[in-house]
Amino acid sequence: MRRADRLFELVQLLRQKRVVTAQELAEKMEVSTRTVYRDIRDLQASGVPIDGEAGVGYALQRGYELPPLTFNAEELDALVLGARMVSACGDRSLASAARRILTKVDAVLPEALRVLMASARLFAPPSHAPPAPSLEAIRRAITERRELSFGYTRLDGEKTVRRVYPLALYFWGRTWLLASWCCFRRDYRNFRMDRMVEVSITDVVFEESEAISFAGYLEVMRAQQSELLGEG
Prior knowledge:
Layout: H1 3-16, H2 22-29, H3 33-45, E1 50-53, E2 57-60, H4 73-89, H5 92-108, H6 111-118, H7 135-144, E3 146-153, E4 159-171, E5 176-182, E6 187-192, E7 196-205, H8 214-228
Antiparallel strand pairs: 1-2, 3-4, 3-7, 4-5, 5-6
Helix pairs in contact: 2-3, 4-5
């Protein structure tokens, strides 16, 4: 858990009870009491009104609220719809993260905005194509700059094995598309995730460079599109 997330959760826990001990906080947050003591000191130093001391317990002064987030109605609609779309189309980890975002925002919104967000009637039904089990692994490979290996069925039915440097993911409403550098073709290629099988992350780590990069991929795709449209 990132430190900023931990501090946010700590304040939320303090808001729930009159007095809470460091041991209770540590158990709920799955950290050491030493970490709790340090985080409490940092929050107090930043102006959060926490009373108490080590070995006794801590209490957040009544009436304290985190600084309100300022959203207008359209911004709240966009936030809710975006989170619901991720929940419907993303993998299990992304869906869980989207729900946590809405919970965190709801916790710090002023009452009027909280009611407004809860009343948003914008929904994203589940996709016709459920997220591939490999989506989470591919996201991790993109973040960690790790090579991917997978079996792939081309449009003509031919089956091949590919090793690629993953650069980005696109969702087109029915399927996810992987933008990558193909180590076999030595060029940028797109792969439909619904045609990929046995996806695995290898031990090969790559670095983006002038020769291989997401910017380079975009440049090639734009050139191909212009050629198809006869704009050359």
